Amino acid sequence: MKSAVKVTITGTVQGVFFRQFIKEHADKLNLKGFTRNLENGNVEVVLEGDKENIEKMIEILKKGPEHAIIKDVYVEKKKYSGDYKEFKIIRF
After folding, report:
1. How far apart are CA 29 and CA 19, in angstroms?
2. How far apart are CA 38 and CA 31, in angstroms?
């Protein structure tokens, strides 16, 4: 079943290669969407794909890469659009 979510990760999540970590795992799980740093220091991730793989990805995001310190992971369900053809890192 196709699903979509927006995830916001708070904590020490910028400057620790978090977006690259996210992309590598999203690609392995065949998820589409994007990740970007937010001005407030958080990282935002939009994911579309199989519900089971999104759930796996959320668990991965809760751990993060080695130097990240995850404070909170907020998950917001979205409507699946199918608009994303790949997973991208959006830079400012």
Report:
1. 15
2. 21
Helix then strand then coil, % of the chain, to nearest 5: 25, 40, 30
Query: Which CATH number goes with the domain that contains 74?
Result: 3.30.70.100
The answer to whether the predicted template modeling score (pTM) of the entire model surpasses 0.85 is yes
Segments forming the whole domain that contains residue 79 = 2-90
User: Which of 72, 79, 87, 65 lies closest to 42, judged by CA?
Assistant: 72
Per-residue pLDDT band for 87 (boundaries 50, 70, 90) equals: very high
**Predicted pLDDT of residue 59:** 98
DSSP per-residue codes, 54-78:
HHHHHHHHHH-STT-EEEEEEEEEE
* Residues annotated catalytic, as ranges: 19, 37
Residues, the chain: 92
Other beta carbons within 10 Å of 18: 23
